[in-house]
Amino acid sequence: MFQTITDPSQVICRRMRPSDLDLVVRNEEISYPNPWSKRVFLDCLRAGYECWVLATRDRILAHGVLSAAVGESHLLTLCVHPDARRKSYGRRMLKHLLKEARRLGADTCFLEVRPSNESARSLYYSQGFVQVGERRGYYPAETGSTFREDALILSCSLL
Predict the structure, then answer these.
(1) CA–CA dist 32, 30 (Å, integer)
(2) Strands 12-15 and 108-113, how do they pair?
């Protein structure tokens, strides 16, 4: 369990490094039923995607990955360690990734989110995202289930 971080200056936003991946993958594993693998993160780093972490000296509190090309960006993942939630780390990471998307020339950002993920939807809506579509059966079924959850497609103007 994380100790409370009372000094926000202890938390820095920096580019993700290969040496972060064990902690990043651990955060994914305790947060999602179908987490990204270390290999997926390595591929994102190699591809030059915007891979960032919010970290202290010894912990990864949040991470995010964004791709940007031809005026558009796509938020591929945003994850906050369960013990670090409700402390604005997700908002801080999202704002940073959107700033990077703008820097790279994107004027729009897209993402997919589970309808059941109310806290994520609330965060995205608060930052100007709106629903523009749905992907039926997008998310894999959990072990022992045949139910595949849809995804809401959200978009935000970066202009």
Answers:
(1) 6
(2) unpaired
Do the domain assignments include residue 1? no
In whole angstroms, give the CA distance from residue 77 to residue 134. 17
Give a yes or no: residue 3 inside a domain.
Answer: no
Strands (E), 16-59: 50-55
Under 8 Å between Cβ of 128 and 109:
no
pLDDT in tens, 57-108: 889 999 999 999 999 999 999 999 999 999 999 999 999 999 999 999 999 9
- Report the distance separating Cα 65 and Cα 43, nearest Å: 11
* The pLDDT of residue 17: 97
Number of structural domains found in the chain: 1
Domain of residue 71: give its range: 8-157
Provide the whole-model pTM. Answer: 0.91
